[in-house]
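Collaborator request, handled under Task 6.
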Amino acid sequence: MFELDIEMLKEQGLQLVDTAKKTAQDLADKGKNQLDLMNQQARLSRAQRQLGALVYSLHKAGEENQPLVDKYIEAVAEVEKAIEEIKTNMSPEEYMAAEAEAAAEDAAAEDEEEIEEEPVQLRGETKICPVCKAEVDGDALFCNHCGAQL
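Structure tokens returned to the collaborator:
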């Protein structure tokens, strides 16, 4: 009878280990999904800001460069697609938690924008295009003059 209890305890212990392992893996997967979503949302925000800055600078200079604008729009669309793929792999609870976190970060970012008094472009944060030597925004992905990738 003593041997039977040991076998039963051993089996229950193995079941508990398996359950704990599965729970830990589920938590890790949820955390990874939320982290991936937050990273992609940050990339989307950055890509949208860059697209807006490009369109503004082209308009201000009286220039048009639709192929370059299209490249930026494609970059935004790629990030949006990645976000949708991540969301389809999330449970409703994960999605709601991630959205709440994103809303809190957006509010914090808006507060930071209100503090900033002048656009970054006016502060001299620019770089030189290696192809055409034009001055471009410091965080631009492409040159707004020749379209070269920076």
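The cover message to the collaborator said: "The chain has three helices and two strands. The longest strand covers residues 126-128. Please let us know whether this matches your experimental observations."
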